[in-house]
Amino acid sequence: MSWPHQVGVIPRRADCFQLRHAADQVGAALADGDTAVLVGQVLAGAGGVGKTQLAADHARRAWHSGAAELLIWITASTRTAIMSGYAQAAAEVLPVPPENPEDAARAFLAWLEPRATATPRRWLIVLDDVSAPADLSGLWPPDSPHGATVVTTRRRDAALSGPGRRQVPVGMFTPDEATSYLRAALAERDRHEPDQHLAHLAADLGHLPLALSQAAAYLIDAELDCATYRRRLADHTRRLADLLPDTDALPDDQTTSTAAAWSLSIDRADRLRPAGLARPMLEVAAMLDPNGIPAPVLTSPPVLAFLAEHRTHSTPGNDPAAPITAEQAYDTLRVLHRLSLIDHTPGTPQQAVHVHQLIQRAVREPLPTDRHDRLARTAADALTATWPDVERDTALARALRANTAALTRHAPEALYQPEAHTVLYRTGASLGEAGQVTAATAYFRHLADTAHTRLGPDHTNTLAARYNLAYWRRRAGNADGAADFEQLLEDTLRVLGPDHPNTLAARSNLAHWQGQAGDAAAAAASLAELLEDRLQVLGPDHPYTLTARHNLAYWRGRAGDMDGAADFEQLLADMLRVLGPDHPDTLSVRSSLARWRGEAGDADGAAADFENLLPDRLRVSGADHPDTLTTRHDLAHWRGRAGDADGAAADFEQLLPDMLRVLGPDHPDTLTTRHDLAYWRGRAGDAHGAAADFEQLLPDRLRVLGPDHPDTLTTRHSLGRWRGEAGEADGVAASLAELLPDRVRVLGPDHPDTLTTRHDLAYWRGRAGDAHGAAADFEQLLPDRLRVLGPDHPDTLTTRHDLAHWQGRAGDPAGAAAALAELLADRMRVLGPDHPHTLTTRHNLAHWRGETGGAEAVFGNDLPVA
């Protein structure tokens, strides 16, 4: 025998072979004297990541460079194959007769030991595609300064690592490598496409080297461009096997198609403990998001029940009818990880399991329709079971939404049979609860259209989707929401009857829109009727009944009922008894009670209540939950109302970055925070800064919400006001005069915001020097305030106050004093003697009495205005 010598055949170098970082890692491992164990990372898939080609490249370079005098390549898929490869090497090198492979293998391994070699030879042994660690028991080549070993395997067992062995993960091509490969493979056939198209195709194939090579061959054989092939690939009515070359036309001497590359690994995994669970577990994972499945989903009761029902076999001594435990499900995930079929990372529970998208497709496509649909419903049940009532963990919520989206793509029909699955509605609500109200609106619009098509216009699921669409349109600021609920209520009454919970919910939202449209009294009346029906249908302690009481108290307050705090106090006691202190609805009632305490004049008490509420919001919902951010917002507001304008401005300045990070710059609540920050900067003494902030905010509200959104109109109003406070009184009156017709057109003449604009227009006319005009405007406004809001509403009382003030400034101090005396009695009756507005009225009454000689004028001319 002559040296150098080769045993076995190195696989042919693949066309357009790509040099990769893993090749350098192999070289570094061998330079350190370690055995290099090449394993496929789960994220990159198992078979098809190019382990054999990397090993072959290293072997070829070692051979041609003279680094290896003896090169042995063994296809090591079984223990017998390994032993036969060693026996063949023994026969050629020692020589030892190969008739007894076991003895010959032992003799060859002994020859490799450095002490046993008279004249050391540099050797390299490649054991390609080792199936199980046990196959190498007693057959590992020895550690030697003269030799190196490379092992390729789909396994990641601990037994494959250890002293002298270094695992070298082999992942997918990088996006650049994948694009370069496709470019080169097509160019060899004089085919050229833009890199952008190639990159998109590479991403569709998950950058898997085996899939890329077979797809390139298919493109060439079928004379397709990338765009056409991608459309076929995205068509889930087509099987993956039909979009790749036939098995007798595979490129690069390949013997296995991409669609079948993992079947052997799945069979092996299914035989490992806990036996019979790997295949059904992988089937469930194949229905979900390849980029990350939360761990609790795959150990949830619905998945455990599915595993118990569909286990393929069990080991001797185990009861095949025994239920599956969460521990067994976890162990099954570890088995799939060891076989490189998934990537299981328990340290990141929100995205604990990753599965390559082509493994998922290869698992899903052979399933019979009934099995596929059952899997889809099981996965949906698992997501629903995992979804928390309160989304404290925003990362988990995002992952659950992503998994629902993936499931919907994989099984669009199954999730609507026999009816729309609950998880579809939970996903949309989660979007809205996370502050993505525009996305929630778009989601429910699509869901409503799909339910209409699949289930019919009168199906309860279709009506429920329409209800959610209307609700989130309202939350997104849609000014026409009443029409949505009016039509929905009509259809719900017809289909479900007057006592169905969905009918009552539609009535509740329609009442809310009455209030939003400016008729708080009508909203309160509608909710009072609704409460009676909910009491009769659902009982006094049903959560929906408690919600009706909450909404009724809110709109009674908005309608001017200053005794509404008593309603909230009684409601809070019932919420605590029925739902407990940590229920989100209980916390919302505490928030409303605090707010109402402030509106009733106790701003210090409101601030204290919100300060007490905030730790509970943080504990129950988490720092980034929209309700927690809202509580911080309300705390800042009432600190300002309690007299600490600087503190309020500072709080809003701290809140805004969190709003931007959690909800995004265009969320309505983020814009509102910017609005209130500007307001309290102004109240803290920086009128010019406030005006500048509002000037920057207005274009964003116009862009995001449109010119007719009520919040946009409010920003226009505030911009005018703070320009006035900054010294542009004449300009303010002009801007408010320009705003008024828009508020009348959008909101109607009787909407409270329209009346507020009329009020402030009158005020700034007076500030601009036209006291007579201001008095006349207030005189015209007062009857409308009385008619719309009633005589005891705080805004009506404020209009009476300002009318008296400008009458006095217009030359009638006696009339002003008389009007303020009447007003003082009403403010004391409605608001109480210590309310700030009551104190302001006493202050101004003393002033105008002084002007008429009835009291000493001690307050000067710069009067506070309520």
Describe this structure in words.
- This protein has 866 residues and is mainly alpha-helical.
- Helix content is 62%, strand content 5%.
- It has 37 helices and eight strands.
- Helix 19 (460-475) packs parallel to helix 21 (501-516) and helix 25 (584-599) runs antiparallel to helix 26.
- It is elongated.
Question: What is the topology?
Answer:
Blueprint: E1 5-7, H1 21-31, E2 35-40, H2 51-65, E3 70-75, H3 79-93, H4 101-112, E4 123-130, E5 147-153, E6 165-170, H5 175-187, H6 195-204, H7 209-222, H8 226-234, H9 263-271, H10 278-285, H11 295-298, H12 301-310, H13 326-338, E7 343-344, E8 353-354, H14 357-364, H15 369-386, H16 394-410, H17 422-433, H18 437-455, H19 460-475, H20 481-496, H21 501-516, H22 520-538, H23 543-558, H24 564-578, H25 584-599, H26 603-621, H27 626-641, H28 645-663, H29 668-683, H30 687-705, H31 710-725, H32 729-747, H33 752-767, H34 771-789, H35 794-809, H36 813-831, H37 836-851
Parallel strand pairs: 1-3, 2-5, 2-6, 3-4, 4-5
Antiparallel strand pairs: 7-8
Helix pairs in contact: 1-2, 3-4, 5-6, 5-7, 6-8, 12-15, 15-16, 16-17, 17-18, 18-19, 19-20, 19-21, 20-21, 21-22, 21-23, 22-23, 23-24, 23-25, 24-25, 25-26, 26-27, 27-28, 27-29, 28-29, 29-30, 29-31, 30-31, 31-32, 31-33, 32-33, 33-34, 33-35, 34-35, 35-36, 35-37, 36-37
Unreliable stretches (pLDDT < 50, length at least 5) are 39-45, 855-866
What is the helix tally? 37
Strand order of the largest sheet: 1-3-4-5-2-6
Overall mean confidence score, pLDDT:
87
Please give the radius of gyration in angstroms: 37 Å
Overall spatial form: elongated
Euclidean distance between termini CA atoms: 108 Å
Largest beta-sheet details: 6 strands, parallel
What fraction of the residues are assigned to beta strands by DSSP?
A: under 5%
CATH class of the domain at 615-793: Mainly Alpha
CATH architecture of the domain at 615-793: Alpha Horseshoe
